[in-house]
Every structure is written in C-alpha cells, then in structure tokens.
Design brief:
alpha/beta, 25 strands, binds ligand LFPHGCPZ, GGDEF_dom, PAS_4, Rev_trsase/Diguanyl_cyclase, Diguanylate cyclase (GGDEF)-like protein/PAS domain S-box-containing protein
Length: 698
C-alpha cells in the first residue's frame, strides 16, 4: 500500500469536519493550509512511484526531466537522479532511441497527443500501451513531452489465446478433417505457449510420456461421454486464465470430434441402407464402377444380379411393416452369407437387392441358385413362420454391358423375365430380351397413340338364356384396329395397358362405346340386351371409375339396368372391404355387377354373401375339360348350386361343345356363353344374329 510522505495528511482519512470545510472553502485555500509545494511534490512523486505504469517527462531535447520508479528500475537504474538529464540514445540501442525520439518530436511539433499506441517492450517480453502528450509551461508553450505507458502483455496474451480459440472454432465450423485439425491445433498451441508441450490423447491412444507434473483437461463428447484429454505439463506461471483457456480448447476439440463423427455418420447413412446396413445404390454405383474398371483391365468377368422378393407386399400388408423390416434383415443376412468378400450386396429399394459377384469361380448360376434356395427357406418373423421366394435376373460384364447402368438395365430385364416365368426363377440376360424390351417400348408408344386416336372397336359375345333359348345379353370385348397389323386381340395389349395405366382411359373408351351400342340397338328396335363390360384391376382402383360409368350411361342415355360390370374374383379378393365399398358405389348407379372368372380366386361363402352381385361367371377353365374331368364337373355343379343358394344367376363361359352345354343345362346353369353359340362378333353381325333368333322364335 502506498504511504503518503511523512507529515502529509492521509488522503484516505475521512474526517467529517474536514469534508465540511472542503465544501465551504476553495480548493487552493485547502492546499495552502495543509501542503507546502515541496510536500505536494513529494506526495505526488510517492504516488507516481507507486503505480506500475511507466511515467516520465522529457524536455524538448529528449532529456529526462522526471521518471517514475518503474522506468528507473526497468532501465537498470536504482534512483531517478541517475536518469535525469539522459536521452534515450544514452540508454537504448540507436534504432529504438530513434523511434522514440521520432514519435516524441512529432507530439512536440504538432502539439497533438499521441494516445493508446501499442508497442512491443524494448526490454524483455511483452507489450506496452504508450501515450504521449505535449508538456506545456504556464503560458502554453511546449517545453517537452510527458509520456505514460502501461504493460498490456496480459491483455495481449488473452487476446492471442482468444483468437487461437476462435480460429479453432472456425476450423470446426469449416469441417476441417479431424486429423488435420488436431495436428494444426497442437502446433498452434505449442507456438502460442512458447514451445510448451501440448497433446491430445484420444481414447484408445497411448499418451506420450511428458517430463514434469501433468495437467489433464478432459475432452467431453456431446452426450457427456469422454473422447480423451488435452495433456500438458504444469509450469510455475500457470494462471487461472490459462487453465480456462485449456479447458475451452478441450471443449472445442470435443465439439470437433463430435462433428467429425456426425459427418462420418451422415456419410455412412448417405451410402448405406439404414435398415439392413447394406450399401445403397449410391455406394453400389461407386464400387461397381471401380470393379468394372479393374475387371476390364484384368480381362475378368463380373456378374450383376437383381434379386426381387416374391410376395413381400403380402407380408407387409398382412403382418405389418415391422414384420416386413424383419424379413428384409433376414434376407439381407442370407444373401450376404453367400456373397462374402468376393462381391457386393446392396439394397436398392423396398424388396430389391443387387448382388455383384466378382470374377465368379463357381458358375454364376450355381451361386445364385444357392442364394435363391436359402432365401426361400422358412423363417420366423414376428412369431409367424413364413417363406418368401425370389426372382433373380443376371447380366454379366463385359458380355452384356461394360458400364454399371448397362448392366443394371440388362439385369433388370432378365429379372422381369424371371418374374414372368412364374417367380422363384433365375434368368440370365440375352440380347433377345433387349429386343423384346425395345419392342415393348414401341408397343407402349403405339398404344398411347391408339388411345389418343381411339383405334379401338368392340366385339360382342352373346349370352344365351337356357330357359328361353334367347340371347339376353352380350359381353363387350375390345379389339385394337392397329393401322399396320390389323385387328389385335386384347391378350396382346390389355396386360400392357394395365402395366402402363393406359387401361384407365382405354376402359373409359370401352364403357362409352358399349353404352352407346346398347342404346343404338334399343333405338333400332332390337330386344334390349344386357351389356357386360370388363373392368380391370387398375380401373377398379381408380376413384374416378364411378363417375366414368355414370357419365358413359348419361351421354348414351342408357338405362343403368342394361349395363353389367364384370369384376374378376382375384381383383375383388385383393382388398375385400375396399371392393365392397366401391361395389356399393357402383350399385347405387343402378348397374348390375357380375363376378368374372369365378372359381379362380379364393372367395368363401361368407365373403360372397357380402358382395352386391347379380351374377357369377364360371371361369372357362372349369368348362374346357368337361366331360373329361369329373373334378371340374363337380366344381361346376357346386358353383351353380352356390349361385342358387346366394340367389345369383350363374353364367358358364367358354362353352364349346353340345356336351358341355347339356351338362350345364342339367346342372341348372341359367346362362351360357361360348364359341358353341357365337364367337365375339362385330356389332353388325350381332344385329343379324339377334334378328335371326327373333325371327326363328317368331
Ligand atoms: N379390362 C378389359 N379387359 C378386356 C376387355 N376386353 C377383353 N378383355 C380381356 O381380355 C381377355 C381376352 O379377351 P378375348 O381375347 O376377347 O377373349 C374372350 C373370348 O373371346 C374368349 N372366349 C369366349 N368364349 C370362348 C370359348 O368358347 N372358348 C375359348 N377358348 N375362348 C372363349 O374368352 C374371353 C372372354 O373372357 P372373359 O372376359 O373372362 O369373359 C378377356 O379375358 C378379358 O378379360 C375390355 O374391354 N376391358
């Protein structure tokens, strides 16, 4: 604590009387009363000597007039008198002295203060903040310079530490590679701390032995775990600020590691399927391109196989998505076991996997057959034992393609063929498949155009009532009047129309034409005929179906009772509840509904009861082998009596022989349809046929 010179009043002493007087009397009076000039000088000098800042005054020639103790000691003197009268040139190296003189000369010449200039210390390490102001006499003449400087080394260091911390945080934000970040951080810290040893010891790493007492700052992870520690050696001058700095750096390193792991995880997720952990399409593309390059250089072969599970949707729909996920994981494991390190297994979509077999030693077919057999083995999913089959399509490099996309396209084509072959099959790509695919594409384009231009005509196949022998209805069957190929049967284009969705506009065309024809026959005075129109699965699922039917009826001005929509049994059974709802919607229009191809699906008596049907059409496959197959005859009789039980009329399709007709009549079947009576005929021929039967009856 600084003491005032002997005899001087203690300025910190607070005496109430004195304070009162100070308020009452002028300051000069007070000074004169208590302090002589010498006393005041002594007191001021003691005070100036006490402050750690450097304070001095110089004359115009740069000679020290006064300097406080801090300056005296810093320049290697013991008493101020030793310094008085000296110039900077006499106590500092020439260059430093010149610099000081230059600044002070400027201040004296300009009369302007030079405040807050940061400079390195002339002696020892550190920084000073310098201020110089002109020294003036009573008349305002500049007679020298007064300087004051403060040691700002601690602040400068704190700033450096902070900017180091900021730089590291910026590196973290920029996502600098972790190894680079750790290396650069270590170098930066060691430089900043004058070569002091600093290292980051991450979990699982061996710490380098350091001499001396060790300081450890834990590097925490975001979730409170520990990544490791920042390790350094303890030194005497370690102040609290530095400890905080180390702790802060350790925290920054923790963030960097967290971030690095996040990025690695995101990169992993971007290239892997989250469910099975298998590579996804992105990684597969990358890896396959590299493998293809290698295979091409080494003239080796490589197989790409597309694997698609059969009936996966059924598992999802019946057992739920969690069960579907479990199934996919089992399948992924089974495929991976077979492929091992000699290839890649990737999941590229719902139930689609791709296998790449590198230079297959065993014949490809055998390896894939083993995969197929393994996938098809029973598995327990959510407590239920199930089996799923699969179809596999294969293409080989370089034979079937040299790029990933060529091989994918060709393997996909082969897969399509495998599925067509009835599933659980493997097909190797052949150039003919590409040709077929090309033709299919051309056909789709032609079909699209045909729908736009309406190149379709309807033929009608009569339905004969057994009881009266009269034609009481027809089934409308579409034909494509192809501009080059002539009249095409539906088997050629209906499946394609289903696949592409073109069946929806095509179905609308058929509905309109059929309704118009029915109305035209009525207008021409023919007996009213029930018009049967096939509705495909895709059409039935369209929410617009009911409005399309209503609109077709309305524009033809046809009474709905003459329109019958034929829905296949398998279509209805896919989603019984949904189908019932849609059937009621249609029924409300006043049309009747028939179940087509009956016997090929799995409807039970109890579900059949719930359908608002008018007729059952026995599938022609049951009729074809009558009378050769007694089993078919029994089924046919059973369907007829089922119809009777449910109060539904039964129509037998595909009746080709008199024998079949007699059997069906005997069984009680009400309506017959087939080549025996007529093939599907153009409208004009139907007119003659009906006119003929009417005349015969008359
Ligand atoms: N969604 C739509 N599907 C339609 C439409 N028009 C037809 N089709 C479907 O195409 C399938 C094939 O039709 P098609 O080649 O016309 O064959 C029909 C008859 O010719 C044939 N048939 C009739 N009687 C006999 C016979 O005695 N023997 C025999 N071998 N074949 C015969 O059956 C077909 C009618 O069958 P079905 O529809 O089950 O009553 C056809 O199956 C339709 O599904 C359409 O406009 N939309």
């Amino acid at each position: 604590m600084m003491q005032p010179p002997d005899g001087a009043p203690d300025p910190t002493h607070r005496d109430q009387d004195v304070e009162d007087e100070q308020v009452l009397k002028p300051f000069e009076l007070l000074q004169a009363r208590y302090l002589s000039l010498a006393e005041r000088y002594e007191w001021l000098e003691a005070m100036i000597n006490y402050v750690p800042d450097y304070i001095y005054a110089k004359d115009r020639d740069g000679r020290f007039l006064f300097a406080n103790l801090a300056i005296v000691l810093n320049n290697g003197f013991t008493d101020v008198d030793e310094l008085i009268g000296l110039t900077d040139a006499e106590i500092h190296p020439m260059a430093d002295a010149y610099k000081i003189e230059e600044v002070e000369r400027q201040v004296m010449e300009s009369g302007k203060a030079d405040l807050g200039v940061e400079e390195r210390r002339l002696k020892g390490e550190g920084w000073l903040m310098m201020s110089r102001v002109p020294l003036r006499d009573r008349n305002g003449n500049i007679i020298g310079v007064v300087g004051a400087s403060r040691d700002i080394s601690a602040r400068k260091r704190a700033e450096k530490l902070m900017s180091a911390q900021t730089k590291l945080l910026q590196d973290v934000a920029r996502g600098v590679d972790l190894d680079v970040f750790l290396r650069e951080s270590q170098v930066l810290l060691e430089e900043l701390l004058n070569g002091r040893c600093v290292s980051f010891v991450l979990n699982g790493e061996q710490a380098e032995p350091l001499a001396g007492d060790i300081l450890e700052f834990p590097i925490f992870s975001r979730d409170g775990g520990r990544h490791g520690a920042l390790v350094t050696v303890q030194t005497d001058g370690d102040e609290a600020g530095l400890m905080e700095f180390f702790a802060g750096i350790a925290q920054t390193v923790g963030i960097a590691i967290d971030r690095h792991r996040d990025i690695a995880h995101i990169a992993y997720l971007a290239e892997h399927d989250a469910l099975t952990g298998l590579p996804n399409r992105m990684l597969l593309d990358r890896k396959l391109s590299a493998l293809l390059e290698k295979a091409s250089k080494q003239q080796r072969s490589l197989a790409v196989a597309f694997v698609d599970l059969d009936n996966f949707k059924l598992v999802n729909d019946t057992l739920g998505h969690a069960a579907g996920d479990e199934l996919l994981m089992v399948v992924a494991r089974r495929i991976s076991t077979h492929v091992g390190n000699g290839g890649i297994v990737a999941r590229i979509g719902g139930d689609e996997f791709i296998i790449v077999l590198e230079d297959p030693v065993e014949p490809i077919y055998e390896r894939l057959a083993a995969v197929l057999t393994d996938i098809s083995k029973p598995m327990v999913v959510h407590g239920v034992e199930i089996r799923v089959g699969c179809s596999i399509g294969v293409a080989c490099a370089m034979e079937h393609g040299t790029t990933a996309s060529e091989l994918f396209a060709n393997a996909d084509m082969a897969l399509y063929r495998a599925k067509e072959a009835g599933r659980n099959a493997i097909r190797l790509f052949t150039p003919a498949m590409a040709e077929d695919a090309r033709n299919k594409l051309i056909r789709i384009e032609e079909l699209r155009r045909a729908v736009e231009r309406d190149e379709f005509v309807l033929h009608y196949q009569p339905q004969k009532e057994v009881r009266s022998g009269k034609i009481i209805g027809v089934e409308a069957l579409v034909r494509w009047q192809h501009p080059v190929e002539g009249l095409l049967l539906p088997g050629v284009f209906i499946p394609l129309a289903e696949e592409t969705g073109l069946i929806v506009p095509l179905g609308e065309i058929v509905l309109r034409k059929a309704c118009q024809q029915a109305r035209l026959w009525q207008d021409r005075g023919l007996p009213s005929l029930r018009m049967g129109v096939n509705v495909s699965a895709r059409q039935f699922l369209e929410s617009s179906l009911t409005s399309h039917v209503a609109s077709a009826l309305q524009s033809a001005d046809l009474d709905p009772q003459w329109l019958e929509l034929e829905l296949t049994e398998s279509l209805i059974m896919r989603d019984v509840e949904g189908a019932i709802e849609r059937m009621h919607e249609l029924k409300e229009l006043g049309v009747s509904l028939a179940m087509d191809d009956f016997g090929t699906g799995y409807s039970s008596l109890s579900t059949l009861r719930r359908f608002p049907l008018s007729r059952l059409k026995i599938d022609r496959s049951f009729i074809a082998d009558i009378p050769e197959k007694p089993g078919d005859m029994a089924i046919t009789s059973a369907i007829v009596s089922l119809g009777r039980t449910l109060d539904l009329e039964v129509v037998a399709e595909g009746v080709e022989t008199e024998e079949q007709a007699r059997f069906l009549e005997g069984a009680g079947c009400e309506l017959l349809q087939g080549y025996l009576f007529a093939r599907p005929l153009p409208s004009s021929e139907i007119e003659s046929l009906i006119a003929g039967t009417v005349a015969k009856a008359g």
